[in-house]
């Protein structure tokens, strides 16, 4: 029988990624992603429930995370769950789950004021001033004669298709009302 281990998350970063460069040349970035579910319980109270997930990215994706991910950014992550066994300070064995991501996509758009520092939630319009035309020195300018201004012909109107008439195969007797 086949098996599947797949996790898909859309959430916000709790802090900037922690990036480590390992001796063999590998790079790993780890960060926490919070997902929040909002609902109304049986008593009519609004409840907000947040789950935290520890995510790791490797190599090129880790470098992208280091460069662009910042605390509070929205991110889409796909990967698989990994179980980690570790020993705490008291010598007690612990188990934790981690998402080893194979896909990561930033949600939002680059910030205008800090384009090298990541992405923001609200899409900010990026506007660039058009370059000013450079005037050639007077002696290098070609002589131009005034040409008549051509009037642009109006664009042809697009004709909408005629609606298709409704044809019913059943009689009026089949209507429920």
Task: For the structure shown, list the relevant keywords.
single chain, 177 residues, mainly beta, 5-stranded mixed barrel, two-stranded antiparallel ribbon, 8 strands, 6% helix, globular
State the shape.
Answer: globular
Give the strand line-up of the largest sheet: 1-3-4-6-5
SS field, number of helical segments: 1
Number of strands: 8
Quick one: biggest sheet?
5 strands, mixed, barrel
Helix content: under 10%
Separation, N- and C-terminal Cα atoms: 51 Å
Give helix and strand order, one letter per element, not per position. Answer: EEEEHEEEE
**What do the pLDDT scores average to?**
76
Uncertain regions spanning at least 5 consecutive residues: 112-142, 144-152
Strand content: 35-45%
Describe the structure.
This protein has 177 residues and is mainly beta. 6% of the residues lie in helices and 40% in strands. It has 1 helix and 8 strands, in the order ββββαββββ. Strands 1-3-4-6-5 form a 5-stranded mixed β-barrel. β5 and β6 form a beta hairpin.
Short characterization:
This protein is mainly beta and 177 residues long. 6% of the residues lie in helices and 40% in strands.
């Amino acid at each position: 029988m086949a098996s599947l281990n797949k996790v898909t998350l859309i959430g916000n970063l709790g802090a900037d990624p922690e990036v480590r460069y390992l001796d063999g040349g590998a790079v790993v970035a780890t960060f926490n992603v919070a997902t929040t579910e909002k609902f109304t319980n049986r008593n009519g109270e609004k409840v907000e429930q947040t789950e935290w997930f520890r995510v790791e990215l490797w190599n090129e994706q880790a470098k992208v995370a280091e460069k662009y991910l910042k605390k509070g950014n929205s991110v889409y992550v796909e990967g698989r769950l990994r179980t980690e066994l570790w020993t705490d300070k008291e010598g007690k064995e612990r188990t934790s789950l981690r998402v080893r991501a194979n896909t990561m996509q930033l949600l939002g758009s680059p910030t205008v004021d800090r384009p090298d520092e990541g992405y923001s939630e609200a899409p900010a319009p990026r506007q660039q001033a058009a370059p000013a035309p450079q005037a050639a020195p007077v002696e290098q300018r070609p002589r131009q004669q005034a040409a008549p201004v051509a009037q642009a012909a109006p664009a042809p109107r697009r004709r909408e298709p005629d609606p298709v008439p409704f044809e019913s195969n059943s009689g009026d007797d089949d209507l429920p009302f």
